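User: quick one - fold this with FE2/S2 (inorganic) cluster bound?
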Amino acid sequence: MSNNQNRAVDSNRRNLLIATSVAGGVGGVATLVPFVSSLEPSERAKAGGAPVEADISGLKPGEKMTVSWRGLPVWIVRRTPEELASLSKVTAELADPDSKETFSYPMPDYAKNEFRTRVEHKDLLVVVGVCTHLGCIPSGPYQAKTLPALGNDPGFLCPCHGSTYDMSGRVFKNKPAPKNLDVPRFMFVSDTKIVIGKDEKGEA
Ligand code: FES
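Assistant: Sure. Structure tokens for the protein plus FE2/S2 (inorganic) cluster:
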């Protein structure tokens, strides 16, 4: 039983952002019980922090909520039909529309689509809200035509150096940020609740 110190996982950039935080402890028990190792969280997962649950029952179309996972702000965004429709329109303007490059976490297979989420819940975007340039927190979502930096598109804006992201967290071309926002592992545990940091394959 111990508190895990939050650690940046791969990127030093995150160290600029991440304050220490505390997640539920899972360490200490494993040495006592000879569980099947494949069912246990990896060492990396245990070091990083436990998965967190989020109740999304009150999240309405166009709204965003933020939960803390491993000290990172994870956005959960309920996209409107208009925001979803914008995704295919902006493809040519994006640096990496198919998310071939990943930032700090590998892209889950179920998020390898333009919605970058589980297609059976394609309105629900789950991304780490940390700019891939130097770790500022972007603002948004902004509706279409409400922010000059985004032109006619809806999306997110990083206030530090002007990187813009579409409604799937994909960075636009010719911006300081080199990569799309991370999609963490997540899964539904009920119709109204998701868990972040874990999916059918285990913990991140
Ligand atoms: S930190 Fe976001 S654009 Fe520089």
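One thing worth noting: The radius of gyration is 17 Å.
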